[in-house]
Specification:
CATH topology: Methane Monooxygenase Hydroxylase, Chain G, domain 1
Shape: rod-shaped
Strand order of the largest sheet: 1-2
Distance between the termini: 100 Å
Number of helices: 6
Order of helices and strands: HHHHHEEH
Helix content: over 70%
CATH class: Mainly Alpha
Number of strands: 2
């Protein structure tokens, strides 16, 4: 094969690979979805802090408000995830190395040219870090809620086991005969 033919083949291969590279609008769309996901994760992290504060203060109305806000943000995250998967599928079709499985974000980032690939990898690292912090906060809130629930349950179990008093004392501290009262009645 002559040198001119080799150069022509190399040029066609580069042109073909460049034609298969994802378009800038698709990559920009992916960055938009990732930015929105990052913002939603930050909002969830703030809500996790509010949830812990409401638990500490035994603020049931605050907990209900946080739960409602979390639900709205989680719906947005699920929509963003669906959008992200669709964008990844479209991007994967434009990349030179196709796989049968749905592509992972890191796989696409590894195939993108400079500066998009490293920028996407940095975005992925930020999302992972924030997701790990959010997971830690939610685990803490779950642990606190579980321990509080177990404590309250133990208190009620103890109250239920205490039974009824055999003796009732009058105002002067003397035993009186009469209606038997439970510990709850005496406190109430």
């Amino acid at each position: 094969m002559s040198g001119a033919m080799k150069q022509a083949d190399a040029r066609r291969a580069r042109t073909s690979a460049a034609a298969r590279m994802p378009s800038a609008p698709r990559v920009a769309e992916l960055f938009g979805v990732l930015d929105a996901t990052l913002a939603a994760f930050r909002e969830l992290a703030d809500l996790a802090d509010q949830k812990l504060a409401a638990i500490r203060q035994a603020d049931t109305a605050g907990l209900q408000a946080v739960a409602g806000a979390e639900c709205a943000v989680l719906e947005r995250v699920f929509t963003l995830e669906r959008d992200r998967q669709a964008i990844l599928a479209r991007l994967a079709q434009a990349l030179p190395a196709r796989t049968a499985d749905p592509p992972r974000l890191s796989q696409i980032a590894a195939q993108l040219p400079e500066p998009l690939g490293p920028r996407l990898q940095a975005k992925i690292a930020g999302l992972r870090d924030l997701a790990a912090r959010l997971q830690q906060k939610n685990r803490l809130a779950a642990t606190v809620a579980r321990r509080l629930h177990n404590h309250i349950r133990a208190v009620f179990d103890e109250l239920a086991r205490s039974g009824r008093e055999a003796v009732v004392y009058g105002p002067n501290g003397q035993r009186t005969q009469g209606e038997q009262l439970s510990w709850i009645d005496a406190v109430g």
